[in-house]
Each structure stands twice: as C-alpha cells, then as structure tokens.
Amino acid sequence: MFENPEISADELPRVSTVHWLGMDRQFLRFLLVQAALGVIFVSIGIGVLQQIFNIAFAEEDIHLKLGMLWFLIPVIAAPTFIWPLISVPRKGYAVRAKDIMYKSGVFWHTVTAIPFNRIQHVEKSSTPLERRFQLATLQLFTAGGSGGDLKIHGLSADNAEKLRFFILNKVGASVEQH
Amino acid sequence: MSNTKDDGWQRTSPLATIFYLGRIYQAIAKNAVQSLAPLVAFLFASEGNLMGRIALGATLFFLVTIVGAILRYLFFRYRITDDSVLIREGVLKKTQLDIKFDRVQAINTQQSIIFRAFGLVTIMLDTAGSKKQEGHIPAVKMALANTLKERIRQTTQVKSSLDGALHKGDGGEIHVDAPRQLLFLRAADMVRIGLSSNRALIFLVFLGPIIEQFDNRIEEEIGASIVEGIGDGSIVAALDTAQPGIDIGTGSVVMIVLGVLLILVATSIIGAFLRYHRFRLVTDNNVLRSTGGLLTRHEHSINLAKIQTVVASQNVMLRLFQHFRLRVNQASSDRTRSSKSFIIPVCEPDQLPVLCREFFGEEFLDAVLDPGAEQFLPIARHYFRSRVLLTGVLPAVLVTAIMANLAGFFALLFLLWIPLNACIIWRLYKCYGVLLARDGIALRRGFLGYRVTAFLHRKVQRISLTQTVPQRRKGLATLRFYLASGTVKIPYVEFEKACELRDHVLYRIESSQKAWH
Q1: Sign of CA dihedral B151, B153, B154, B158
Q2: DSSP string for residues in B409-457
Q3: How many Cβ atoms sit within 10 Å of the Cβ of residue B148?
Q4: Which end of chain A, N or C, is less packed with Cβ atoms under 10 Å?
Q5: Cα–Cα distances in angstroms (integers) from residue B220 to residues A14, A144, B217, B224, in the given order
Q6: Which residues of B touch A143 (CB under 8 A)?
Q7: CB distance B140 to B12 below 8 Å
Q8: pLDDT grade, residue B169 (50/70/90)?
C-alpha cells in the first residue's frame, strides 16, 4: 500500500550534521610537487633570460640588474608552498542519498550543494601529474551554468570513478514529471 | 505557397528570400568592418572615376547579397514529423536541426508588413540551453504556424496532465480552457513605455560630444569678443562685447539640448508603438502568449512550466507612473539571458497579483512582486556597516593618504566620499528585502528604482552558502541560488536562518516530482 507520511520541518536532514570526507592524502603532496615544479620552471626561465642577456649585451656597456629577479623566487614560492597546507584540510565533500556537497575556502568559507536530480552531466579529468599521483578531478554540470558548476579536485582516481558512476546512476534514476 | 516533396521535406515561400536578405544585412551590420573591407579595397584598387566605382561597388554588393539570399532560400527545407521539426539549411556549411516538440521552450512568430500582405509569418523555435533562437522557418502560411503551435501545445499537455497541471474530468479526459486575456495595452501605455525606456539614456550619451562642441564654440566666440574688447582698451567694454556672445551661445545650447531631448522622447515613444502597439497578453492552456507591433507583428509565447524566474522592475519613470515592467525568464546559457526573456513592457500594480498567480499557479500563493509589500523582511544591518567600511571609508582614507603629499589640505576633500557613499549604501540596504515562503522566494533590490525577483524552490539548480571572516564573527552568511536563468544572491542573512533555508530548499528540490523545465 502506498504511504506518504508528512515530515515536520524539524525532522528534515540538516547539512550541518553531515559527515565530511577530506580530500585524498596524495592531494597535498600533488599540490606541493606542482608548486615545486612551478618554482623550478620560473628559476630556469630567469636563468635562461640572464644567460641570453649576458651573451647579447656582452660587447655593450649595458648592465641589466636581472639578478634582482631571483628575489622573486621566495616571494612566489612561499605562498604556493604554504597555501595548500592551509587550504587542503578545509576542503571536503559529502555524498548523501539525494545530493552532493562540497566545502572549500580559507577566508571565504563556501559550502555548495547540488541535488542529483539537477545534474546534467558529470566529467572526470586528470592531468599527467594528477595521474602520477593517482588523482582525478570531477566536474558536475547543472543547467544554466557556463562552465563546470562544481569542480572537486583531489579525489583519488578510484573514488572519482566510483563517484561518477554513483552520480550518473542517481541522475538516471531521478524521474520527473513534465 | 509551400512546395512539398515526396519525402516530406518542404520548401517555404520564395518570399523567404526577403527574410534571408534581412539576415544577411544584419550580419553585415554586426561585422561592418570585416564584411565591407573587400568591397572598399575593390573600390580603391580599380581604376575609373569615384562615382562610377561607387555605383559599380553598390551594384556588386546588392547582387552578391541577393544571390546569397536566394541560395539560402533554395537550400532551406523543413519537415514536421509526429514529435519534432526537422530543418535542413546552409549553402556551403550544411546544418540539420532536429527539434523535439517537448524540448521547445517557446514558439514565436514574426510578421513583417510584406509578409502580412501575403498572410505569411516567420516561425521561431526556442529550446532550453541554446545560445540563440534555435530554429526558424521563414515565410510560411499562418495556418501552418497555428497547427505547429497546437501540436507542440498538445505534446506539452499530455506530459503536463501527468502531474495534474491540467484539469481532468470524471472520465479522465483533459479539459482544455479557452484563452483568457490578461492584459491589453493602450496608446497611453505606449507613451509610458517610451518615456520609461532605458534606451533613451543610451541616446543621452551622445549629448555629451554635442554639448562639448557648443562649449568650444562659445569659448571661441567669447574669446574673440574679449580680444576685440581688449583691443578697444577696456576690460569692462570687453565683457560687454562678450555678453551677446554668451547669450546667443547659452540660448542655442539650451534650444539644441531641448530639441535633442524632445526628439529622443519622440523616438522612444514611436519605438514603443512599433514594438508594442495593441499588445495583448493571453493565457492559453499553460501557455502565456503575447502579440503586438505596428508594422511587424510579434507573437511570443512561453510555457508556464518552463518559467525559471519572474522579475518585476520599476525604474524612476515607472515609479512616477506607478507602473511595472515584467520579465519572465526561462532556462538559458550565460550569454543569452536577456534575449530569451518574455517581456511584459508595462502593467498596473493591481495587475501584479493576477499575473503572479498565472506565473506560479497554486504552488506559490504567497508570491509578491510589488516592492512596496509589507511581507519583505530586511537583511541584517551589518550589510550597511561592512559596505560602508569596504567601499567608503577604506578607499577614501587610502586615496587621501596618497594624495596628501600632492594636494596637501585639498586631499581631505576625498573624505567627502565617506558620507556620500554611506547615503548610497543606506539606500541599497533599505531596498533589500526578502520574502521567504514555503515554496518560493522573492528578493527585492534597488537604488532609485526597484527590482523584485521571484522563483520557486524546485527551480533551483544548486545552492551555495558563503561566510567571510567578518560574517563568521557576526553569525551571518550570504546565500546564492543558482537557477537555469541566472543567480539570485541574498546577502547578510543570519547564519542559522540561512542554513535552515538552504536545507528546506534542498528538501523541496529533492522531494519534488515536478520537472524544473
């Protein structure tokens, strides 16, 4: 027999009681390696630039203080290494029966919730470096948005695939009447 | 007028060439530099007298565009199947469109003065998520447009009947209501639309350079008079000599400005007559339909189930007239929000509840579009304090400190920004109002005018709740509701209330069996 008992507002599930799952442990290492690669890339760039200028202006009396650029390295490196240590622990996601939630932000705390019956499609992607760390990014698209409406970085490749499959099943299962 | 082939593919009337000609000229106007560059190059490269070259160029231009329009007509085919409209078009780049009836958000028609003489219309089909009007069938008989509309309506009805959107009789048969007129605009309304048009403000921008030109002329005239006067040996005499120049100059500027303003107002009112003459809004079995226009008759329709948000706005002029303008938004991509809206150019305050009831039906009975309604609750007062600090005090103090060395004491003038900014923020704060109902939300915003946005909870796509550092300290949060037609932001709500509202809206979305589109 069909039953449809009314639920009082107090009984509604609250977002504040959800159990948040953190990002994969490899994610922090991935971000630090990415930052290190960035610093190495910038250092090589400065080094090459210095050599080119030295060779090009060797005959002329032009002194460009390119050495000052090396001071940029710690200025760029410090936040890129420190920021992941602060931001990653503050990121998290929660999968519930009817929706998925994602929290992020250090100064601006943001919690985004997307009900499964509003998801248009799901995209899983991974860069070569992410693949090296067995990580993947999941993008969830809803109607009206111009890009990926919710990007969840730092999921383990296994989890991302499971999540994608789970969400697609949920999306397919949601039946609405027009 | 339309020719049918054995395979069901049909051609439209040859008059469609006019439609394509219009499209080509529109495209040329949009990309004027790129489109006309080869022609200009040809004109200057070829030999002979200039007039002859211009005549040759113009002939070539018209020939090419006419041939292009004829080719586009010849390569256009359409076919109406049981559940969709198929369109094949394109001369070099072939396109085939398959537009399913249930995906159609709106079916609009346009009838230019030439088409009207032959009883033809252009059908425009609009689907969710497309960047522009997705498909068009130019120069077809009005009867075909009506049949197509009816078939699309029936398809939607069959689906809508599942969720009880239509009345069912005892035998389960679907009752079809007769069309009801909701609104009819008269000549006085055209004047109101014309006077309250935002386009007039854009034209005002052109006044700047005109005034500047006259300013320069006055300066030159006065300068010349003074030089003349000084030549006579007396400054007083010089100023006396300059006086007629000042009078003539000021008089001409005032006359020109008034003249331009009058022309602008007249243009705006004529524009309103051209677009909305005899504007009629009817509801026809879950479809809202508007017709209007003096030369070209426009017919726009929107399925009530596809409405995402309704915006009632009132600019300064409309506040003076105590009227409102309504925009009904359906699902669209980011770039096409305004172009895919259904517009009701003007309506009276007592028509708002009636229209609101039509838009939201029984689902959102508490919906209010009148900004003066008492149901709107204010946002937290901290909005005022934080905005004044961020946009008033901080920049003013910073600029004063920077300019202190350069301007000295006069740098303190920058501090005047603080009270001015505070007045603006206070007004913005007072305009903010939120109406939270069981099934929907209405948000009021504004500065000189008002804008009320209302939507149903179940239309929301995703929700985000953000807290800045000061907001966390004060127990406040900003809620953003992302809909298929745009975002609605409710700033500075009590954190507990914001969480409750988010949970409630999520519950409504997840438990609703009705489609959002």
Answers
A1: positive
A2: GGGGGGGGHHHHHHHHHHHHHHH-EEEE-SSEEEEEEESSSEEEEEEEG
A3: 20
A4: N
A5: 74, 56, 5, 6
A6: 128-129, 331, 461, 484, 516-517
A7: yes
A8: very low
Inter-residue contact B134 to B125 (CB < 8 Å):
yes
Nearest Cα neighbor of A50 from A30, A73, A34 is: A73
Give me the phi and psi of A119, to 5 degrees please: -80, 130
Cβ-based neighbour number of residue B81 at 10 Å: 11
Q: Does domain B3-163 have CATH number 2.30.29?
A: yes
Q: Coil, strand or helix: which one is A76?
A: helix
pLDDT band of B28, cuts 50, 70, 90: confident
Structure tokens, B10:
């049909």
All structural domains of chain A with their residue ranges: 26-86, 91-173
Q: Which chain B residues are Cβ-neighbours of A115 within 8 angstroms?
A: 462, 506, 509-510
- Please state the φ and ψ torsions of residue B65, each to the nearest 5 degrees: -70, -40
Pairwise CB contact (< 8 Å): B515 & A178: yes
Q: Which of B468, B472, B484 sits opposite A143 (nearest CB)?
A: B484
Q: Within A57-106, where are the H helices?
A: 72-87
> pTM for the complete prediction?
0.77
Domain B382-511, what fold? PH-domain like (2.30.29)
CA distance A29 to A24: 10
**How is domain A91-173 classified at the CATH fold level?**
PH-domain like (2.30.29)
Distance CA B179, CA B287 (A): 9
Q: In the 8-state DSSP scheme, what is residue B46?
A: S
Q: Do B3-163 and B382-511 come out as alike in CATH topology?
A: yes
Residue window 132-171, chain B: list those with CB within 8 Å of chain A. Answer: 156, 159-160, 162-163
B165-183 b/e with 16+ CB inside 10 Å = b? bbeeeeeeeeeeeeeeebb
Pairing of strands B476-483, A119-125: unpaired
Judged against a pLDDT cut of 80, whether residue A34 lies above it is answered with yes
Give me the residues paired with residue B326 across strands: B312, B344
From CA B44, how far away is CA B36, in angstroms rounded?
13
d(CA B175, CA B155) in angstroms, rounded, equals: 15
Which residues of chain A lie closer than 8 angstroms to B460, CB-CB?
Answer: 118
Rounded Cα distance between B270 and B421, Å, is: 38
pLDDT at B221 > cutoff 60: no
> What one-letter code names the amino acid at B250?
T
| pLDDT tier at B6, thresholds 50, 70, 90 | low
Distance CA B131, CA B447 (A): 31
Structure tokens at B165: 């959107």
- Lowest-confidence pick of A52-61, B15-24, B341-350, B428-437: A52-61
3-state secondary structure of B365: coil
Residue ranges covered by each domain of chain B: 3-163, 199-276, 382-511
